[in-house]
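Name: YjaG family protein
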Amino acid sequence: MKKPNNFQRIRELNTVQKAALAAALLERMLPNYTLFSEALEFGEPEVLRNALALCWEKILLPKSKISIEKLIEKVEPNVPEVNDFDVFGVYPAIDAATALLTLLQGLQSKDEHEYVSVCKIAQGTVARLIEYQFELDEQPYSAQDVNQHPLMEYEIEVLGELIDFVAAMPRLDKDSAKALRQLAIADGQTNIGVEI
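Structure predicted for YjaG family protein:
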């Protein structure tokens, strides 16, 4: 199975590479939040988008005077409550906001385990969608069925490509960060296959 391989490779990246990878995955997750927000008139997607832009800036320029604490305070009220919404879209929206908070906490505490957690949240969003589809079709399923689902295989493949890119960067600068962001959304869809 490919999955442990990707996470092993993530652990071997340096701190800046891990942070950049987490931010790139958020580029794929955040549009899920925006779609949910627009459909259900909840939250302020621009607050999350701005926070992610500032995360990139902080990763590129660690000494920049960005208050991570203030960003966390702004993002937190935008996390939807699962019980308030009767639509599946609340889950990818919660995951996107939670992953963003996790990235912010990683930048604040300089704890690279938080960046690995973002990668796990991204993959968890995909797993939840696959499980939801099996349940809608009233089909029994196993963890193996979820892992071998085309959507999960694709997510693992995209993650592998992003890891390759990050691992090959001599250093993170404006150009490589821009290229990484473009690579993350090159297929024009979110991590759960929704068109951006």
